Amino acid sequence: MRPDESRTVYDGKLFDVVVERWGEHDREIVEHPGSVAIVAVDRDERVVLGRQLREPARRELLELPAGALEAGETPLACAKRELKEETGFRGGDWRGGPVLWTTPGFVREQMHVFFATDVDEGEAQTEADEEIALERIPVADVADRLAEIEDAKTLVGLLLLLRSRGR
Amino acid sequence: MRPDESRTVYDGKLFDVVVERWGEHDREIVEHPGSVAIVAVDRDERVVLGRQLREPARRELLELPAGALEAGETPLACAKRELKEETGFRGGDWRGGPVLWTTPGFVREQMHVFFATDVDEGEAQTEADEEIALERIPVADVADRLAEIEDAKTLVGLLLLLRSRGR
Fold it and tell me: What angle do CA A110, A125, B107 make, to 5 degrees?
């Protein structure tokens, strides 16, 4: 399925906005390169999360490590890169989870969720405009912490983790 | 927490784009009025979902009923209105679920998730640019259908439903 017409109405740094003509109606759509989110569990059975200022929320949120795909990058390579940059964790056993539309009403962004186990600690290399405080939550405590989660992808990832562990 | 400066760089129909100055860096943010999503279960223990063309995905997706807040509308009123308009279902017992940032990296949109039980069938009143095919899935079958779900809010809602039912 394709639109009859598409025109770019905003050409941004992280995303563009296009207006597409679909038959009788126009749709305003944010174009994003796509992203990854990682549910990583270390060798001590703790999930690796990060707390950072999120300007859209105007406060700090506790989230899974995540980031945008770079040109030519596979989702798995992106996930390993983002986990390492944001948290320092690396290695481990990886499997792919769901590929989700984050906001299918008006954003063209697919998010690839990955699960990693037995990841090893290392040095984080966050970018200048990212300050991320690491938090590791024992898998056994995740169910009790769900009510704190305000980020959709993080809630999805933790609920799937609990389900896969029969918790 | 507030930005030092904010300027609107795109003034759209459903959303705007602003660039905010936070200390040393700029953030490009999509401004959205906020939204609701509803996990509604009818008197026969079936979850009410809709399948519709999502132009950002360029295909049909199976999703929870959902929609954007109108000016002055409370999230609960919006949720009841959207459920009725999109699916015809009404009435029932309602409770609030999580309030989630859908995409906190670049979209200022909070989504209010609601759970409704014992909803009653009625006539849908979809808008001209919305064509939604109703699907009702028995709660007992939801776990087996999770792999089909490609929409983040729908996966969150169904996982929370399963959890609340001990499934």
Answer: 35
